Amino acid sequence: MPVFKNGHFIDDQWRMIAEGEDVPPSGHVILPLEWWLAERGAFEGSHVPLGVKIEPDTQLAAMVDDLSRFSLIAIHFPKFGDGRGYSHARLLRERYGFKGELRAVGDVLIDQLQVMSRCGIDAFDITDPATEKALRQGHSPLVTHFYQPAAAHEIPVGTRSWARRPA
Amino acid sequence: MYRYDEFDAAFVKERVSQFRDQVERRLQGDLTEDQFRIHRLMNGVYLQLHAYMLRIAIPYGALSSRQMRKLAHIGRVFDRGYGHFTTRQNLQFNWPALKDIPAILDELAQVEMHALQTSGNCIRNVTADHFAGAAADEHDDPRPYAEILRQWSSIHPEFTYLPRKFKIAVTGAEKDRAAIQVHDIGYQLKRNEQGELGMAVYVGGGQGRTPMVALKIRDFLPVKDMLSYTEAIVRVYNLEGRRDNKYKARIKILVHETGAEAIRQKVEDEFAKRDDVLTLPHDEIERIKAYFKPPVLAQREARSQTFDARRQSDPAFAAFVKSNLFAHKIDGYGIVTISLKPIGGIPGDATSDQMDVVADLAERYGHDEIRVSHEQNLVLPYVALDDVPAVYDHLVKAQLATANAGLISDIICCPGLDFCSLATARSIPIAQRLSEHFGAGEKARDIGGLKIKISGCINACGHHHVGHIGILGLERKGIETYQLTLGGSGDEICTVGSITGPGFSSDQIIDAVDCVVNTYLNLRTSAEESFIDTYRRVGMAPFKKVLYERDTGADI
Questions:
Q1: What is the pLDDT of residues B536-554, one digit of tens each?
Q2: Which B residues 24-63 touch A at CB under 8 Å?
Q3: Phi, psi (deg, nearest 5) at residue B85
Q4: Do A143 and B14 lie within an 8 Å CB cutoff?
Q5: Within an 8 Å CB–CB cutoff, is residue A54 touching chain B?
Q6: Which of A9-23, B35-49, B224-238 has the lowest average pLDDT?
Q7: pLDDT score at B553
Q8: Which of A26, B279, B431, B446 would be B413's cystine partner, CB 3.0–4.6 Å?
């Protein structure tokens, strides 16, 4: 699936690990969170680049101590109307300080990309043809004014106090 | 009143462009109906039984005359010459064409209005006491806080895809005119012992098929923490609210299933982890408050001779004053309620011509301010007592002077099966017949304050659960049947009404309500004891006995 990041489609190094597969030495595989939680002991001392995939009902508390181990967290949106992933993204970025890639996977559509990125998601796994078409045509978001603080530094200081990030 | 600055204006303009783009992509087939639906709803566009319906946001129900004239104009040009004021202090147009909607949104943007978040699973239009800023019993004006909430919740990136809709109401008085305890969040402004301003926080109220009175989870929250606390509540709800069943998805179910203490703990834990970003700086609260400074009102005598003389000489005017004029916090002024409940009319409807009349009156006598109440009436919050007779005369000419605010014919009613695709029964004709039966004259005045609320389906948009007398229209084997509830109340003593027993047919329901009212009249200790007080004293039994020991209470 094409991955959109920083304004263009990129060559993606990552893939979901297949069931029963061993983690390759080169890493760059995304593990389901359960897999990671069951086998994390096996990765002690390893520096293989790993990603993990979380679901809407994931309890972040179970994994926050391991965040530094991940280069990528895939947030699964099984249906675009399920908004739990937005809270997960903000918490991972703002509360737990995750600096790696936050990738939206699943039902990821053009009209949700902007709110996703405002929550700190910075890569998008695109499966919807209309969304891919719109992005390849250079579709850009039409709304640029926002009332809330968000992960992206988009609001001039002083515009709205509840929209201001501390320095 | 709040005035848009450049930021607000640019925001709304961009949002209209965004929706226009979404409509175009839908028409080109790039968006499926399922994908489009969520954007349509978030912009206030519903697909109803016969046509699209556009619901326009009127934040906390406040309108200027210019805005009211624009609504009148839109009604004339794009609809059938009228609009419908709703229980969320909004306005609905029932007959716009989809192709005209972007143009209507452009017209609205010219007067600082929009239709954002009047639907969808997001934080909806924030409501407030319709007497805000004018009522004599107010601790503080709730509108600045409602406005801050409105701004903060507009396309909130984290909270636009909640499990279900989310409604917030704010009041600043002890007397709750905003029904805060049947909201997802209700804030009540209050002062602590040090005189500092804060708010009591109520969570998990709601109506619908599972009516619940909200729980108070905080007695005093400093106002500077309002957004942080709101964020904590909505985040807990977003992550933990049920998504498996849309009828169990409101926060009231989460609150109920989790338990009051557990939900309070979760919210407080989340709140404790806040950073300072959302803490409201004093200067910013003051900046927003400045928009809501009361108009400069000329000093007047507490008593007005013009007013008193007319009141003595004209019984119709006296009756209007008794029901439709409310005490103002400034001497020599009053708050005028313009009833949108003409006898036999459709509750909440106003013609474009009537909207223009109200706009003119607001401009000439009312410091250019109009409010929409959740009881589907209009309010002029700043009228000099000297001017009340003139205002009344204009209202009479426009057929807007029905003297029934708060009386039995001041009925809240949803659109029901005449318009709504969810409805199971008609509600408007029941309201019309009750209104004709009880009228706005001597009989209605003798009955006194009594709130009838009617919903045409279990979703309870007509607030029947909190009606002193509530009526719920259902369909049983293809026949409309009406369930009666008694003892509900949406004010500071908030209760959900109890069902009397088997329902009534459309033919029987007026008689059943009449029977309840007569029972009350027989039971009350004096004319001072209102229906709800009498009900609370005697309970359901005497009403039930009279209702079902007659021949007409058929078991349907």
A1: 999 999 999 999 987 554 4
A2: 25, 30-31, 35, 38-39
A3: -85, 135
A4: yes
A5: no
A6: B35-49
A7: 45
A8: B431
Among chain B residues, the shortest Cα distance to A143 is held by B14
Let me know if residue A144 belongs to a domain: no
A165 has pLDDT over 80: no
How are beta strands B185-191 and B197-203 bridged, if at all?
antiparallel
CA–CA separation, B534 vs B523, rounded Å?
7
For residue B91, what are its two tokens?
């306005």
Residue B428 · residue B435 · CB < 8 Å: no
Q: B6-110 maps to which CATH number?
A: 3.90.480.20
Q: How many CB pairs under 8 A join A and B?
A: 105
How does pLDDT run across A59-79, given as a tens digit for each residue? 999 999 999 999 999 999 999
C-alpha B438: how far from chain center: 23
Query: d(Cα B160, Cα B218) in Å, to the nearest integer?
Result: 25
Least confident of B36-50, B151-165, B171-185: B36-50
Q: What per-residue confidence (pLDDT) applies to B29?
A: 87
- Whether the per-residue pLDDT at B556 is higher than 70: the answer is no
CATH numeric code, B305-397: 3.90.480.20
Would you tell me how many other CB atoms lie within 10 Å of the CB of residue A44?
7
Average pLDDT, chain B: 94
State which residues form the domain around A25. 3-139
The predicted structure's pLDDT at residue B554: 46
d(CA A70, CA A61): 15
Whether complex ipTM tops 0.90: yes
Two tokens at A140? Answer: 């850009």
Fold of B135-287: Sulfite Reductase Hemoprotein; domain 1 (3.30.413)
Under 8 Å between Cβ of A85 and A60: no
B121 touches chain A (CB under 8 A): yes
| Residues from chain A contacting residue B157 (CB–CB below 8 Å) | 86, 90, 115-116, 118-119, 146, 148, 150
Nearest CA in chain B to A108: B35
Probe site for chain A from B17, B150, B161 (most A CB atoms < 10 A): B161
- d(CA B229, CA B231) in angstroms, rounded, equals 5
- CATH no. for residue A95? 3.20.20.70
Q: Establish if A162 touches chain B: CB-CB under 8 angstroms.
A: yes
When divided into structural domains, chain A yields a total of 1
- Position A145 in a domain: no
Instruction: Identify the CA nearest to A106 among candidates A23, A1, A12.
Output: A1
A154 — pLDDT class (breaks 50, 70, 90):
low
Measure CA of the first residue to CA of the last residue in chain A; give whole Å: 37
Per-residue pLDDT at B538:
98
- Chain A's closest residue to B274, CA to CA, is A95
pLDDT at position B308 over 60:
yes
Q: A88 to chain B: which residues are within 8 Å by CB?
A: 239
In A, which residues are within 8 Å of B239 by CB distance? 84, 87-88
Q: How far, CA to CA in Å, does B553 sit from each of B475, B500, B544?
A: 17, 11, 10
B21: chain A residues, CB-CB within 8 Å: 142
Interface contact flag, B11 A145, Cβ < 8 Å: yes
Instruction: State the pLDDT at residue B34.
Output: 86
B10 to chain A: closest CA residue = A145
**What does the pLDDT read at residue A167?**
45
- Of B18, B35, B164, which to mutate for an interface test with A (greatest number of A Cβ within 10 Å)? B35
